[in-house]
Structure formats: structure tokens, C-alpha cells
Fold this sequence. Notes:
By secondary structure, this protein is α/β, with parallel strands linked by helices. The protein folds into two domains: 3-195, Rossmann fold; 204-284, Helicase, Ruva Protein, domain 3 (Orthogonal Bundle). It contains eleven helices and nine strands. The chain has helices at residues 3-15, 31-41, 58-66, 77-86, 120-127, 141-148, 158-166, 204-214, 222-230, 239-249, 262-278; strands at 27-28, 48-52, 69-74, 93-97, 110-114, 134-140, 167-175, 180-181, 188-195. The mean pLDDT is 95.
Amino acid sequence: xxxxxxxxxxxxxxxxxxxxxxxxxxxxxxxDVLIRQIGYAKLTEEDVVxxxxxxxxxxxxxxxxxxxxxxxxxxxxxxxxxxxxKFHSHDNVTIISGDALKLDFPxxxxxxxxxxxxxxxxITFKILDYDFELAVFMYQYxxxxxxVAKPRTDDYSRLSAxxxxxxxxxxxxxxxxxxxxxxxxxxSALVQIKxxxxxxxxxxxxxxxxxxxxxxxxxxxxxxxxxxxxxxxIPKEERFAFKKQLDNSLSFANSRVRELSVDDxxxxxxxxxxxxxxxxxxxxxx
Length: 286
């Protein structure tokens, strides 16, 4: 029996809980993967690390050995109390009890976590609104494939387009399901996210809004998806002229959404914004 599974079971007993499927409580029990995860982050004493989902504290403990400061957010109140007791003598560890989706994150330059998988998407979008150097997160493998997916593939999605717009994303390694307790039904993956250093070529707000509308039906033509969205809020007598003007304004009007690269989406967003501003309808994109 591995050292980490013994630690994990002991922690759960001390916290007085059993793993909850509803909270995606599947705990990493392979020490080699844990050490590699920290190695990918290249931590130094200058680093301030945010961990999302402290769990039983096995990752927190290793982070505290290398980073200058560690903040660990834990949603489960019993686990948060256990972690507070466990790390009370660690001057560089702060346990935060609460919902990571609702809390304002403390300032940190690196994010490292074995994420609760049911919040993978909203947490990923949330970190993109923060200033950081690097994130190394554990995700479900299928989710990780969507993160790095390219146009014209089944996995290409709004997640792919938004993440790759703002960051460089790489799957570092696949992690077998039997490296977790309790064992989940699917494999996982360690993923590295590095925000792009250069200034974004277009408004993040409008890129996200445009991609959200488009990827609702990614197999349809761009012109059709956008018209279907706007026709619901445009007076009936204006729709024909609006559609004609819209189609003429878009370079990729007759491309399917799933075919658009990030660069194509940037162009489409810019053209859509310009068209809506010219027709005084920019407030319709929300």
C-alpha cells in the first residue's frame, strides 16, 4: 500500500468524512506524479502559489517545501478545518475555507492544483481574469483534450478557443485513473497553462461574447448562427436588411464555426464589433 493512500485515508478519518462524489473528491495517491507536478512549476522561494481544492493536504505539504507562500482554498468545511489544524505551525501556508468560484483569489503568481473536476470549466475561465505566470492543473483527460483541441476536430469548443486566445496550453502527461482514491471512471491529465505575454489583439470581453454565441451551434455557418442570435432581439421589419449587412461585413460568414481558428475568431469579433457599432447595436451583444 502506497504512502499517500495511507496518508489520505488517515486524513479522511481525522476530518471525519468519506469522499463525496458530488464534490469530485478523488485524491491523488501516486507520489511520483505529485513530485512531477511540482517539478513542472519550477517553484522557488520567491513564488506565491494558489492551490484550489486543498483536499487532504498532500499537495499543500509538498508545495510548502518549495514555495515562499502557499494559499490553499478548500470548499469542504471539515477538510478545511483539518487542513487548518495540520498546517497551523507552517508560517508560509494559509488555508482559506470557502467556494473558489465565489471568492476573490489572493495575489499569486502560480496556480497549482488537483482541481475538483466538476468546477474545471468555470475555474479555468476564472483564472484567465487574473494576472499569473503559470498554472499546472490536474483535469479529467477528456477535458484536457478539449483544452488543446484544434479547429475542425470534434473536441474543438468554446473552451479551446477562449483558452488558446489568452494562453499557451500543453498536456504534460496522462495520469491513470488507478492513481486516485477513490478510483474515478476516467483517466486524468496534468495540464500547463501559460498566459500569453503580448497584449491581446482585441477586447477579451467581446471575444468571449462572440465565441459564446458562435459555439452554441458550432457545426452551422457563422452567418446563420449570428443571425439566429440577433433576430430574436431585432424588430421583424429590420431583419432582412440587418442580415444582408451582417453577411457582407464578415470575412468568414460562410465558414462553419468549428473551422475557425483563434485568429479567425479575432477577425470575426473585430468585424462584428465594427458592424454593430456602425448600426448602433453593440449593446445587443451580451
